[in-house]
Amino acid sequence: MDHRELTKNELNDLADKYWWKPIYEFPNDFEHRLDKVSSRILYCLLRKYQPKVCLEFGTSWGGTSCVIISALQANGGDFKFVGFEKLEELRLETEKHIEQKCGQKIEIFKDITENLDKIPQELDFVFIDPDWDITEDENKQPLVDIAKWTFENIIPRVKKDGLVCLHDWSVNRELEYEGGGFPGIIYFIELFKEKKMPLEKLFSVWDEPEYKASSIALSFWRKT
Q: What digits encode the pLDDT tens for the residues 82-111?
């Protein structure tokens, strides 16, 4: 894998090859966590790097899941997608939207921390949402604890040179934090500053002023 950061022009070239209609049509009849810019970059990088074993949590309404699975289908060959969504209503919505958009039935599991046995030992790609589909209250596990669990149990399963996408964390070229301030992401940031996070940046959506003005924070990394 090419280890250097990608440029906007390189991503635009990938979009010309992989994204624009009729190659991929963005589903717009249900809510997405990602905007079209972020989804386009995600889709194109999955087409470029061709992962086969992929994990996403949490899936929310399934918009990101549809983008990921559509890219995997377009890549051709067998693949494995494992998704988790703790909220029951959203879990069922994800399954429905995947079937509608991708024509494939895929079971989405509930709490990832209770289903480690369902996650392959080796992963090519992981999509991580810092909110982990829960709020931090007296009845639920603190978000920093979930982030710690993720760092200890999921990141080690990503293969060397595997892809990691972090939602709501965008890092500028000085590697300083920009984004939503979720406790779990702040935990990751501190690990990164201490050089304990085995990730190297490929692209940050907010590195580009044009993207920052019209998209959410999103960053892409490779496992070192």
A: 999 988 999 999 999 999 999 999 999 998
Q: How many whole angstroms separate alpha carbon 89 and alpha carbon 29?
A: 17
Question: Contact at 8 Å (CB) between 206 and 170?
Answer: yes
pTM given for the model: 0.90
The percent of residues above 70 in pLDDT, for the chain, comes to: 87
State which amino acid sits at residue 40: R
- Domain spans, the chain: 8-223
pLDDT band, residue 193 (cuts 50/70/90): confident
Taking residues 34-61, what's their average pLDDT?
93
Pick the CATH number of 8-223 from 3.40.190.10, 3.40.50.150, 1.10.10.10, 2.170.270.10: 3.40.50.150
DSSP state of 131: T
**Cβ(65)–Cβ(97) under 8 Å?**
yes
* Cβ 56 vs Cβ 86: under 8 Å: no
Written as one string, the DSSP assignment of 27-40 is --SS--SS-HHHHH
Cα 178 versus chain centre, distance: 17
> What element of type H or E holds 83?
strand 80-84
Of 133 and 42, the one with more pLDDT? 42
